[in-house]
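sorry for the late reply, my laptop died twice this morning and i had to redo everyting from scratch. anyway the thing you sent over, i finally got around to it. pasting the sequence first so we're on the same page, its 292 residues, then the predicted structure underneath. double check i copied it right bc i was rushing
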Amino acid sequence: MDVLSFSNVPTLKRPILLLAFAGWNDAGNAATFAAKFLLQRLQGQNFATLDPEIFYNFSEQRPHVRFSGGEREIIWPANEFAYASDPQLAQDVIIALGVEPHLQWRRYIDSVLKVVEECEVELVVTLGALLADVAYAKPVRLTGSASDAELAQRLHLSPSRYEGPTGIVGVLHDTCRRRGFPALSIWANVPHYIAATPNVKAALAIVQRVLRLLDFSTDLSDLERAAGEFDRRVSDVLASDPKVAEYVRRLEERDEDEDDEIGNTNDLPSGEELARELEAFLREQRREQDEG
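ok and here's the structure:
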């Protein structure tokens, strides 16, 4: 059974493949939000999809139901590929949006790389977001790696020294390296104490870096406004809770000197507690705006 199906195989100009996956690799939904924004802005057209049947445990990743035309419709976890051929693009773009699979990761990656081969993709770019001990007031820190060191330097990507469990993005990137496919990863560092999603500020940083890679300009004013509003609402929380403010102050001090330790934080709430407080505050803010 071939799990990859094409509605057509487009003829593309030196395409770049951008991939983002919902799940473990997508803190604050920042990577998938960025990919969806780029898909909409570049007016991508779907041309291929992966059958979800063998890749997911549907008791964990449940399909959704919705009404369409007065009838119920089941929406399964989607893994779709779309292409964009804007005349202003030096290279065409394929955007893949998916959900991290539960099963058969190697077969899943083999299917993704069939698209790379069929469409003669020149560069595979994986997008991700991770939870990190970073201060929210600072510019979003982007880390990553590239098979081309010059490209990583041009995009100002700090190399990641992470060791530990990895997700489908890390495995895909490693497989590309081992098989000789040029690859680049871009990861946004998202404050672990902010639970609100999507993290528009992090998504904006990813979009800006991808546009630099594509050497393509587009109007980002709507995304910038959304990021500014998100920023203001989170700043209100950080200013209103002394525990949160103290924690963030220590993070900012550490960022100023990476060799310094944060110090004793035993008296501070955990990241989960901070996230719950922030989310409760944002819900209250939304309720007040709706009532007003």
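The helical segments are 30-41, 105-118, 149-154, 168-179, 200-214, 221-240, 242-256, 271-291.
thats about all i looked at so far, will dig more tmrw
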